[in-house]
Amino acid sequence: WSVDGEFELSGRISAAELGNPHGLLTVEANGEVWTVEVGQPWRNERAGVTDAMLAPGGDITVRGHRAADPAMLVVKAERLVIAGQTYDLYPDRS
Fold this sequence. Notes:
Layout: E1 7-17, E2 24-29, E3 32-37, H1 41-47, E4 59-66, E5 74-82, E6 85-88
Parallel strand pairs: 3-5
Antiparallel strand pairs: 1-2, 1-4, 2-3, 4-5, 5-6
C-alpha cells in the first residue's frame, strides 16, 4: 500500500491513539492533517519511545513510507525524531 522511497514529514502531534495493533498519531504539517502509524507498544518501548513522548502538542519528524495513493495522507513510520533524538522503530530496516 506504500511507495518504496523514503518519506519524511515534520509537524505537530494533535492526537494520539496508542495501542495494538499499532499506534496512530494525527500530525498537522504544512496545513495538512496526516495519519502516522507508529509501532506496537512493545516496539515503541524497545526503541525508547514512551507514550508521553507522543502526546498531543509535541513536535515530531517521521521517516518512513507514505501511502501509494497521494490522496491518502498516511505514513508508516520506521524512525521518529523527537527533541533532536532519533528513535529507530525498525532497526532491521535500512
